[in-house]
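SEQUENCE-TO-STRUCTURE ENTRY
===========================
What this section holds: a protein sequence and its matching fold, both as plain text.
Tokens: labelled as protein backbone structure tokens, with as many entries as the chain has residues.
Question of interest: how does this chain fold, as expressed in backbone structure tokens?
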Amino acid sequence: MYAIIETGGKQYKVAEGDIITVEKLGVEAGQDFTFDKVLVLAKDGDVKVGAPYVEGAAVTASVIGDGKAKKVVVYKYKPKKGFHKKKGHRQPFTKLQIKSI
């Protein structure tokens, strides 16, 4: 059994027991979070596709914790002009474990 959920403008294929990292949700560690935007729900070969979401379907996950991804370095320069600009960014995320579909 698996489901495809939408969160943070992205889509994730999840099954029970999976650990995923998504855009930061602002939920404390140890709490449960429910995704109601389920795009596809599949069980034993029976596939339900939503238009745009499957009605009555939900995915429950427990929050493991928050963190930051590895640094992405953005470097700009213009040749022959002496222009250099270096900037770094670390994207925050939330780590979840899927409990039930």
